[in-house]
Amino acid sequence: MKIIIDCMSGDNAPDEIIKGALEGAIESNVDIVLVGNEIIIKNVLRELPAEKANIEIYHTDGEPLTMEDEPSSVMREKKDSSMAVSLRLLADGAGHALISAGNTGALFTGSTLIVKRIKGIRRAALGAILPPFAGNPMMIADAGANTDVTPENLCEFAVMSKLFMEKVMHVENPRVGLINNGAEEHKGTELYRNTHAMMKEYDFNFVGNVEGRDFPMGACDILVCDGFTGNVVLKLCEGFGQFMKSKLNGIFKTGIVSRASALLVLPQINKLRDTMDYHKYGGAPFLGISRPVIKAHGSSKANSIKCCIAQAKEYALSGIIQEYAKMAANPEAYKKASEDN
Questions:
Q1: Distances from the Cα of 327 to the Cαs of 15, 122, 182, 302, in angstroms?
Q2: pLDDT, tens digit, for every residue of 109-132?
Q3: SS3 content of the chain, % helix, strand, coil (to 5)
Q4: pLDDT in tens, 66-114
Q5: How does strand 2-6 pair with strand 97-100?
Q6: Would residue 285 be called left, alpha or beta, if left means φ above 0 and alpha means ψ between -120 and 50 degrees?
Q7: What DSSP assignment string belongs to 232-279?
Q8: In what order do the strands lie in the sheet with 138-141?
Q9: CB of 308 within 8 A of CB of 286?
Q10: CA-to-CA distance for 120 and 156, rounded, in angstroms?
């Protein structure tokens, strides 16, 4: 198994990316291809136990993509960036999966145009993993890639998410929810009303509309929505997590009594902090692309990249790509049996 790593993209590139790639290669027993400036990569590796892993370096000194670049830059102005080169390597079969912490829009555009969607898939989707507020980790699809969608797109996202959650996250019979401003079937815009009616035809565990206050309480394992809504939900959850972390730290540092109290509940606090750490669940997979692409968090440090490698390996070995191709070739097979009669 060989994983391609875009070393020059992300807020903490290249040091943390390379460190995490090395740790992940050792822990997950995979080979890695480090893509970026060879001189810089080798300088970082000198400080690490690089001899413990099977490492290949693919040199490119193209200007790295930044978060401010237009998505199309990966195909034009910065086609020699580490991200663009990594995508071409994946498309050419030089690795089994790709991880990048770079510009989400550029990575999604490059994945669609260079690696390409699976034939028959209408839209690829960004499937972000949220920590388990209650029960299992939860996937949001779409989490930002497609702001203009149809009911058919959302149903396709639901099926792809179901397969990913079953085969990679090992969630049995995941519950699919449709985000809405009310639980009743008649609530929401025309898009969401029509999607609700269509989703009832599919052979997955559809629990209906899910309000924003309910999914943190474990109402579903997959939250389906358009990319605009999904990205707002994702960023709100991440921001609220950081808010709660800072508040807890403040509460237990206000005086001698509170510091003493903190010692009594410290194990529980650490357990909660560990559970809510979204970095440990890897990155956001691009669902519907012909080869596994994982979008790591832009702020990823070494541990996050290490977790992404484990996730990418699982994704590549899961057989999901073949399942997506079957779905695209025969979508009726994923509907309830009664629809076939």
A1: 40, 11, 30, 35
A2: 999 999 999 999 999 999 999 887
A3: 50, 15, 35
A4: 989 999 999 999 999 999 999 999 999 999 999 999 999 999 999 999 9
A5: parallel
A6: beta
A7: HHHHHHHHHHHHHHHHHHHHTTSSHHHHHHHHHHHHHHHHHHHHT-GG
A8: 55-59, 31-36, 2-6, 97-100, 293-295, 284-287, 125-130, 138-141, 222-224, 175-179, 205-210
A9: no
A10: 11
Q: Which two tokens stand for residue 302?
A: 């070494």
What stretches of the chain show up as alpha helix (H) in DSSP? 15-28, 38-45, 82-91, 104-110, 151-167, 190-199, 227-251, 256-275, 302-317, 320-329
Cα–Cα dist 72/69, whole Å: 8
Q: What does the alpha-carbon distance between residue 313 and residue 28 come to, in Å, rounded to a whole number? A: 8
Other Cβ atoms within 10 Å of 67 Cβ, number = 13
Paired tokens of 309: 């490698």
Residue-wise pLDDT tens digits, 164-190? 999 999 999 999 999 999 999 999 999
Quick check: helix, strand or coil at residue 87?
helix
The radius of gyration computed from the CA coordinates of the chain, to the nearest angstrom, equals 21
Q: Are 156 and 195 in contact (CB under 8 A)?
A: no
Using alpha carbons only, give the angle 273, 306, 67 rounded to the nearest 5 degrees: 85
Place of tokens 């997979």: 285
Compute the distance between CA of residue 310 and CA of residue 208 in angstroms, rounded to an integer: 32
* Preceding amide of 142 cis, omega within 30: yes
Please give the Cα distance from 69 to 81 (Å, whole number): 12
For residues 322 and 313, is the Cβ–Cβ distance under 8 A?
A: no
